[in-house]
Design brief:
By secondary structure, the chain is of the alpha/beta class. The protein has helices at residues 2-20, 46-50, 69-78, 82-85, 111-118, 133-136, 152-169, 180-188, 193-215, 242-246, 271-279; strands at 26-32, 55-62, 124-128, 144-147, 173-178, 222-227, 247-254, 261-262. β3, α6 (133-136) and β4 (144-147) form a beta-alpha-beta unit. α3 packs parallel to α11 (271-279), α7 (152-169) packs parallel to α9 (193-215) and α8 (180-188) packs antiparallel against α9.
């Protein structure tokens, strides 16, 4: 009997500790389309490389197959693979077949939708450069949806707008998506001088968003998820070139994160939305194949 009481007490302490874990007030998702691990370096991306000392990170997050943009972004937003969410083509704007939904639902919700349902008055934003993104995030769940051109000027305009928005609205959730790097890979090649040069431009964008979080006074209550949908090979992606396309970078920075920690466990696209929902206290749906990356947090 005494052992049972001790066990019960220990379990109660563990549960209370888990419940008391401080959760961030804000989550910022920085999505960089077509970001290749193979071309990453501290020389080309000095700011992002410096995040390895402040963030939990891995260069071994796996894409889903096929390694096309829309398919992977939908997995990054729903915690489900393409066999479930039904997006199977590069530019799909709706499922290509019936979705495998969770109990009690007739759709597969994005984490934007799940947060909206949990917190109807939450401030939620999605800034993006690829027009298909607005159909994938579930635009009806977003307060502020803005499109920017795929160009250096578009990048700079998005960063400026994002920083102003963070300071004014202090959103509960925000996606800042950059698509020009992928366009550069398709035009010049993923190992080209032009692609490598654009990595430095993207590095400046990432630095700008992080600085915007600090300038808005949100640094101590924000978690940043920084990742991509796929890499590239020659002037393409969509195949299974593991090192160049399927292995992708992931950085998790901010409140409660294990700073300077290289994640040891497996990470896949579906783990990102599962992690975001866990940070918000949203329970996993029964059709999710992703899991929260709790390893990244203290």
């Amino acid at each position: 009997m005494k052992k049972k009481l001790i066990l019960a007490a220990v379990l109660a302490v563990v549960c209370l500790a888990a419940a008391a874990r401080p959760r961030p007030k804000h989550v910022v998702f920085i999505g960089v389309d077509g970001w290749s691990v193979a071309e990453f370096s501290a020389e080309l991306m000095p700011f992002t490389a410096s995040l390895k000392d402040e963030a939990a990170w891995t260069f071994n997050k796996r894409t889903v197959i096929p390694t096309s943009s829309g398919i992977n972004w939908e997995s990054l937003f729903t915690a489900t693979p393409p066999e479930y969410h039904g997006y199977t083509k590069w530019n799909s704007t709706s499922p290509d077949f019936d979705q495998v939904t969770s109990s009690g639902r007739d759709d597969i919700p994005t984490f934007f939708r799940l947060l909206r349902e949990k917190e109807p008055h939450a401030e939620i934003a999605a800034f993006y450069q690829w027009k298909t993104i607005h159909t994938l995030v579930d635009s009806t769940a977003v307060n502020d949806l803005r499109f920017f051109e795929e160009s250096v000027q578009g990048d700079d305009a998005e960063v400026e707008a994002a920083c102003a928005y963070l300071k004014e609205k202090k959103p509960r959730l925000a996606l800042f998506y950059f698509g020009t790097l992928d366009h550069t890979g398709h035009t010049y090649g993923w190992k080209s001088d032009e692609y490598r040069a654009y990595l430095t431009q993207i590095d400046k964008c990432i630095a700008g968003i992080i600085q915007g979080i600090k300038d808005a006074g949100l640094e101590k209550d924000t978690v940043v998820i920084l990742t991509t949908d796929h890499g590239g090979n020659k002037k393409s992606h969509g195949g299974q070139w593991v090192n160049d396309v399927m292995r992708t970078p992931l950085f998790i920075w901010g409140k409660g994160v294990r700073a300077g920690y290289e994640m040891q466990g497996h990470a896949i696209q579906m783990d990102i939305p599962a992690t975001i929902c866990w940070l918000y206290g949203i329970k996993p749906l029964d059709n999710w194949t992703g899991k929260a990356l709790k390893e990244a947090f203290r």
